[in-house]
């Protein structure tokens, strides 16, 4: 057993026992090692600081409670992040089911005529102007997205994960991911166009 | 060949990335010829860029530390 704080071997059964017993020093080492990464992952998925903290709390709690089942074969980091993504999936399943009606579907529909041509095309403004407005209000617009759409969009665009990776991590189908991205991107674009360009 | 509503739906749902060559060429051709859809596509790119930049802002160390304390306290609460 290590006498120096911060240098424990996380695979050492003695360390795992300390975690199981909720030894504060052992817990502190785990938090110190992995909390920043978890919070960053949460942020990268579009979660607010509070939501990210809740998810991290859930992951650490599940780790501590399940430490008896932890085989030590995979690194604790892999195990912890596995729990984290499971929690994200649970969160997505609870908060939003794909397939339910979303008002953005109607909004988009109304922009096209019967033949699929633009009836109300995107506002004609310079690229730089739109880009500047997007940067200014993107966080506000992101927070307005339903959670599942926000996570899908951020995993794709911020974390730059591929479709198979996202589907594997969040356990949704590629088709459902497509619907979430369609809704997220259109909501965001409408949000920037509406709030950004038309306001002072 | 393809309508604007089809093309915008496909590019916003990433359907174009899973599509075969013919469909992708058709989408590409439409985007070259249609100023409105091309603008739509550029705006989606700007959104993605903006989101990446926003996510780079990290929480200050003091906040992370405070979060850590709260988490540890809760972990210690359980029987």
Kindly list the characteristics that best describe this protein.
heterodimer; A: 200 residues; mainly alpha; 9 helices; B: 79 residues; elongated
Helices and strands in order, then pairings?
The complex is a heterodimer of chains A (200) and B (79).
Chain A: H1 13-20, H2 24-44, H3 49-65, H4 76-95, H5 103-110, H6 127-143, H7 147-157, H8 163-170, H9 174-197
Chain B: H1 4-12, H2 15-18, H3 21-33, H4 35-55, H5 61-77
Q: Indicate the radius of gyration of chain A in whole angstroms.
A: 21 Å
Strand-pairing-aware structural class of chain A: mainly alpha
What value does the average pLDDT of chain B take? 93
Which whole number gives the mean pLDDT of chain A? Answer: 87
What is the helix fraction of residues of chain B, given as a range? over 70%
Helix/strand class of chain B: mainly alpha
Helix content of chain A: 55-70%
Q: How far do the termini of chain B sit from each other?
A: 66 Å
Largest sheet of chain A: none
Task: Give the structure's gist in a few sentences.
The complex is a heterodimer of chains A (200) and B (79). Chain A is mainly α and 200 residues long.
Description:
The complex is a heterodimer of chains A (200) and B (79). With 200 residues, chain A is an all-alpha fold. Chain A is 67% helix and 0% strand. Chain A is built from 9 helices and no strands. Chain A is elongated and about 70 Å long. With 79 residues, chain B is mostly helical. In chain B, 81% of the residues lie in helices and 0% in strands. Chain B contains 5 helices and no strands. Chain B has helices at 4-12, 15-18, 21-33, 35-55, 61-77. In chain B, 32% of the residues are buried. The model of chain B has no long low-confidence stretch (mean pLDDT 93). Chains A and B meet through α2, α3, α6, α7 and α9 of A and α1, α2, α4 and α5 of B.
């Amino acid at each position: 057993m290590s006498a120096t704080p911060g240098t424990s071997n996380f695979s050492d059964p003695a360390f795992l026992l300390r975690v199981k017993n909720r030894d504060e020093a052992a817990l502190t080492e785990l938090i110190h090692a992995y909390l920043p990464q978890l919070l960053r992952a949460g942020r990268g998925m579009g979660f607010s600081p509070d939501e990210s903290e809740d998810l991290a709390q859930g992951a650490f709690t599940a780790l501590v409670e399940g430490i008896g089942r932890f085989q030590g074969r995979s690194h604790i980091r892999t195990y912890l992040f596995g729990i984290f993504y499971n929690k994200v999936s649970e969160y997505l399943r609870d908060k939003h089911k794909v397939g339910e009606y979303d008002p953005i579907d109607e909004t988009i529909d109304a922009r096209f005529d019967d033949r699929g041509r633009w009836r109300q095309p995107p506002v004609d403004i310079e690229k730089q102007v739109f880009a500047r407005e997007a940067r200014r209000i993107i966080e506000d617009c992101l927070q307005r997205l339903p959670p599942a759409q926000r996570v899908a969009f951020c995993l794709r665009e911020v974390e730059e994960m591929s479709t198979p990776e996202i589907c594997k991590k969040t356990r949704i189908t590629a088709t459902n991911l497509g619907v979430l991205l369609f809704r997220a991107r259109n909501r965001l674009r409408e949000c920037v166009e509406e709030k950004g360009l038309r306001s002072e | 060949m393809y309508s604007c509503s089809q093309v915008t739906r496909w590019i916003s749902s990433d359907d174009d990335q899973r599509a075969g060559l013919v469909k992708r060429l058709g989408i590409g051709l439409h985007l070259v010829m249609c100023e409105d859809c091309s603008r739509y596509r550029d705006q989606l790119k700007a959104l993605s860029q903006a989101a990446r930049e926003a996510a780079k802002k990290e929480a200050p160390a003091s906040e992370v530390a405070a979060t850590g304390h709260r988490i540890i306290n809760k972990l210690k609460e359980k029987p």
